[in-house]
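Incident review: delayed structure delivery

Summary: a single-chain prediction request sat in the queue longer than the usual turnaround. Root cause was a stuck worker, restarted by the on-call engineer. No data loss occurred. The affected request and its eventual output are reproduced below so the record is complete for anyone auditing the incident later.

Affected input:
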Amino acid sequence: MIEIINHKKNQLINLLRDRGITNEKVISIMEKIPRESFLDPALKQMAYNDDALPIGHNQTISSPYIVAKMSQIIIEEDKMDKVLEIGTGCSYQTIVLSYLFKKVVSIERIKSLHVKAKKIISDFNRNNIKLIFGDGYAGSKIDSPFDAVLITAAPDEIPKSLIQQLKIHGRMIMPLNKNGKQILLRIKNTPKGIIQKEIDDVLFVPMLKGIIQ
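Output delivered after worker restart:
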């Protein structure tokens, strides 16, 4: 079983390279983290398929390619210390970010996913992650400003509240509902306002307000 998993993981890493993941640090992190640890037992055999998979509550773990691509875009080559993640989910993207940034603040609006993520992160012994149960639209003013913001659900408009928590010259990567489809956006916060760049068509769960106990 271990040999099969390792073979599938190697195939996935080759696929990521073929699809344009060139940041070797990101590649190394994707190799290191066992994606099966974030999945229910019935789905573990699919851990290294390049697919989004259900994690309950109508939420998904993003495909490895999307996780790697968003990580590569957000980090680039700059020195960036602190990132805000909106949508902890199963914490797979959170763990990846914890190897790229000195501090990760991650917000989840669904209580049971938040509790499960705390257990997983404890198992990985990552001590540079702060988890918050709350409304992602509110961000975390107490921890702001951030060098980067990464959103793992699609709102209908760019959340101004999160732009306000982004440092000048900081970056945001997020999906956005636009003209009946979703676009992955890279946003830079400049002294003269935000600059947007459309990256690709994507498919994420919607970004919703409020919390679910």
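Verification: Helices lie at 2-18, 24-32, 64-75, 92-98, 111-124, 160-163.
Action items: add queue-age alerting; document worker restart procedure.
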